[in-house]
Design brief:
Distance between the termini: 24 Å
Number of helices: 2
Number of strands: 3
Strand content: 35-45%
Order of helices and strands: HEEEH
Helix content: 25-40%
Radius of gyration: 12 Å
Shape: elongated
Structural class: alpha+beta
Largest sheet: 3 strands, antiparallel
């Protein structure tokens, strides 16, 4: 949990106007056996970035979703 928090805070380096970062982890594995992570990042002027991805491990799913946010 702490590692996810630290990784989420690193997104602030890419977007200095973020006001909130919310990470949701679905602990139940899907039919494909993967865990899913959703990242919602809110910036000034009501801009919202949302990305979700899945992988066999939570950190891997987070990294994939974070890559989508950075694009």
């Amino acid at each position: 949990r702490q590692e996810l928090k630290e990784k989420a805070e690193k997104l602030l380096h890419f977007f200095n106007r973020l006001t909130m970062i919310e990470v949701t982890v679905d602990q139940h594995r899907g039919h494909d056996g993967n865990l899913s992570v959703e990242i919602r990042a809110t910036a000034e002027h009501k801009h919202e970035f949302v990305a979700a991805d899945a992988a066999d491990a939570v950190l891997a799913a987070f990294n994939k979703a974070a890559a989508h946010i950075k694009q």
